[in-house]
Amino acid sequence: MPDKSKRSVSPVRSTQPVMWLLALLGRKWTLRVLWELRDQRLSFRALQARCDDISPSVLNRRLKELKTAMIIDHNGLGYGYTQLGSELGAQLLNLNDWAAKWSVEMEALR
Amino acid sequence: MPDKSKRSVSPVRSTQPVMWLLALLGRKWTLRVLWELRDQRLSFRALQARCDDISPSVLNRRLKELKTAMIIDHNGLGYGYTQLGSELGAQLLNLNDWAAKWSVEMEALR
DNA sequence: ATCTTATGCTACTATTTTGGTAGCGTCAAC
DNA sequence: GTTGACGCTACCAAAATAGTAGCATAAGAT
After folding, report:
1. Cβ distance A44 to A51 under 8 Å?
2. Which of A39, B28, B39, B85 could form a disulfide with B71 if both were Cys (CB 3.0 to 4.6 A apart)?
3. Residue A55 Cβ under 7 A from any strand D atom
């Protein structure tokens, strides 16, 4: 039986998925890769070029992780979001809006 | 509407803030720290405990970075979001919704 | 006063992750 | 059959993170 203590629904079970996600996104280059794929599919080498010439070994690791997580896939047109992943990608666009506002605030206080 | 064609205005200037943000969030533990602060202020040691006993040296670096970015601050009640940062924190809550859906999909395909 | 407890760290070394370079196998065009 | 693009893999160097110890300060209890 799963955990019965304290909370009626297991707190572990309810927060684990987001923990996995945060760990995945928290690896270097993961967010950047997802950002670069925001509105187009890209080949391995095109991605590499856009990501400040990230080393192929790391890029490949990140792509494997994202494929395993079913956030991206790979076809003849290159790497891109899966249907599921695209909903996550949409949230990254929101980050851009926040960042724009943020930079204005930061500039104002320099 | 913002530019949608070929980046008529400086592409560097328009994407730099989000690049900084992605680099910041892409460091290990940064997202997790922000997640743990989502609905309460926490002391250094309380944060450490919640973040799987992250080493104090790394935690301190992350906190410094986030303070410099004016996303969090520190007062007598511990570390917590600034007004600006809380809008970013709100987006992390959305990540949780996505992650919940994601885990269901992943389970279904195992 | 002093003993305990909590806080917010810093210093140091070990381990893990990432970076950088070279190069291979496949394919398609020329 | 040579050239170029692609998607890698292997290898070692460099950088980031983990892990442990411990210090200084302050508040509260004895």
Report:
1. no
2. B85
3. yes
Q: Is the dihedral of CA A6, A10, A14, A20 positive or negative?
A: positive
DSSP letter for A82, please: -
B29 touches strand D (CB under 7 A): yes
Interface residue A100 vs chain B (CB under 8 A): yes
Q: Rounded mean pLDDT of A15-43?
A: 97
Cα of B37 vs its chain's centroid, Å: 10
3-state secondary structure of B42: strand
- Cβ proximity of B34 and B88 under 8 Å: yes
Q: Which fold has domain B13-108?
A: Arc Repressor Mutant, subunit A (1.10.10)
CATH fold of A11-108:
Arc Repressor Mutant, subunit A (1.10.10)
At residue B40, what are phi and psi to the nearest 5 degrees? -170, 155
**Token pair recorded at residue A30:** 């993961």
Residue-level pLDDT at B110: 74
Average pLDDT for residues B20-48, to the nearest whole number? 98
The DSSP symbol for A42 reads B
Spanning CA of A55 to C1' of C23, the rounded length in angstroms is 14
Q: What is the DSSP string of A22-33?
A: HHHHTSTTHHHH
Tracing tokens 């799963």 back to the chain, one arrives at A2
Measured at the CA of B67, the angle between CA B61 and CA B73, to 5 degrees, comes to 120
